[in-house]
Design goal:
- By secondary structure, the chain is α+β, with helices and mostly antiparallel strands.
- A four-stranded antiparallel beta sheet has the order 1-2-3-4. Strands 5-6-7 form a three-stranded antiparallel beta sheet. A two-stranded antiparallel sheet has the order 8-9.
- It has helices at 10-15, 64-80, 94-107, 112-124, 127-130, 134-139, 142-154, 163-183, 213-221, 226-238, 242-247, 277-293, 325-335, 341-347, 364-383; strands at 19-23, 31-35, 40-46, 52-59, 253-254, 259-262, 271-274, 304-305, 308-309.
- It is elongated.
- It contains 15 helices and nine strands.
- The protein has three domains: 4-80, Double Stranded RNA Binding Domain, CATH 3.30.160.390; 94-183; 210-383, Orthogonal Bundle (hpI Integrase, Chain A), CATH 1.10.443.
- α3 packs across α8, α4 (112-124) packs across α8 and α10 packs across α13 (325-335).
């Protein structure tokens, strides 16, 4: 009689009462089912000189037959001196590959935001896809295409209907395969070739139109907190990201060279933000307001707040007032009326192409960039209605 025929059925195991000592009737030495009142956990113990134990899953998500097969395989690996938790050669999965890829990204100094985004993309994948051998995903590209459909269906009530989340998960899988291909050259091809990996540009992204700018500025000036007022205006004048805005310190301001060092930037590549006259006047006003409202925090932070520095989230809580990335889009749109895309990209620090310290007022190029920033600010002030004190 085969070993599987002697196994208790899943239905029988489900009916067993909780047991602190666990159940061992599975014909595999060391395999134990610990059953409590809320969950039941499969555990495999190894006796001898190198005693160890490993949690291999939970019942009923892992049924009896699968637990026995996995435990048997792990014991065979231990007998051969192989790692008990690692996949066999050629049986690597997304689940076993992601920790290796994550470790590589950390070693290479990958941005924490990128790691977080990849982590979310990994979590969205179903357990079935995470645990399929990588070679299966290559041989059947429909697996990932169907996975995208599943993600979009699950997030259909969310913003953009899960389209962006599905695309991000496909991009993550493609990047992980690129890493694993270095270890397994036989993994030739792209498992997401049948997937959508780009998302059409949204038409509902907020930004200010020219005719909306005077009313926007009037609303901003009605806000009670003058630091919030100046933070919103400074964002419009510079196109700075909210994370960078939060991190600005007075110690990084260089009035002689008319720039401020932005140390928290996308891609972890600090850059110098060229300051026009309207920007400097904005900083002068916020310094005065900061000293009155948050004296200690204002010694360090350009935009101080109750937690030390002002947070980007606090700028989005005012109904009808465009903030943060909406103002960044507005700046980019206005700047394109003054200079070319390449210069705008440098001002916005796209892909780490921000202006470096050697440019500003130290060379002809630096003077040209400063003049361009001045012209952009001049146009913004004009379209705001040329309020007194801004220019």
């Amino acid at each position: 009689m085969s070993r599987n025929r002697d196994l208790p059925t899943d239905a029988a195991v489900a009916a067993w009462p909780p047991s602190t000592g666990g159940y061992r009737s599975f014909n595999v030495p060391g395999l134990l089912l610990r059953k409590g009142t809320r969950k039941a956990t499969w555990e495999l113990r190894f006796e001898g000189r190198k005693a160890a134990r490993s949690i291999i899953g939970e019942f009923p998500a892992m049924p009896v037959k699968l637990a026995v097969e996995k435990a048997t395989e792990m014991r065979q690996r231990a007998k051969k001196g192989e790692p008990i938790d690692g996949p066999k050669d050629g049986e690597e999965t997304i689940a076993t590959s992601w920790p290796l890829y994550k470790a590589r990204l950390i070693d290479e100094g990958c941005s924490p935001k990128t790691l977080l985004a990849y982590g979310h993309a990994y979590d969205r994948l179903s357990e079935a896809v995470k645990n399929r051998p990588l070679i299966d995903l290559l041989n059947d590209r429909v697996i990932m295409a169907d996975e995208q459909v599943r993600i979009r269906k699950r997030l259909s009530n969310h913003k953009r209907g899960g389209q962006n989340a599905a695309a991000q998960s496909a991009v993550f899988v493609s990047a992980l395969f690129g890493f694993m291909r270095e270890r397994r050259p036989l993994l030739v091809g792209d498992p997401v070739s049948a997937c959508q990996t780009t998302v059409p540009k949204r038409k509902d992204l907020s930004r200010l139109e020219i005719n909306e700018m005077p009313a926007w500025y009037a609303q901003v000036r009605k806000l009670k907190n003058p630091i919030v007022q100046e933070a919103l205006l400074f964002t419009l004048l510079t196109g700075i990201r909210r994370g960078s805005l939060e991190s600005l310190r007075w110690s990084d301001l260089d009035l002689k060279r008319r720039c401020i060092r932005v140390r928290v930037a996308k891609g972890d590549k600090p850059f110098d933000l060229i300051l026009s006259r309207p920007m400097l006047r904005c900083l002068w006003r916020v310094r005065r307001a900061g000293r009155l409202l948050f004296r200690e925090a204002a010694r360090t932070w350009v935009f101080p707040g109750e937690v030390g520095h002002l947070t980007g989230n606090s700028l989005t809580k005012y109904p009808g007032i465009v903030a943060n990335h909406g103002l960044r889009r507005t700046y980019a749109s206005i700047a394109n009326n003054v200079v070319g895309d390449d210069i705008v990209g440098k001002f916005l620090n796209h892909s780490g192409k921000g202006v470096t310290a050697t440019y500003i007022y130290d060379s002809f190029l630096g003077k040209m960039m400063a003049a361009a920033q001045h012209d952009i600010s001049k146009l913004i002030v004009k379209w705001l209605g040329s309020p007194p004190g801004l220019a």
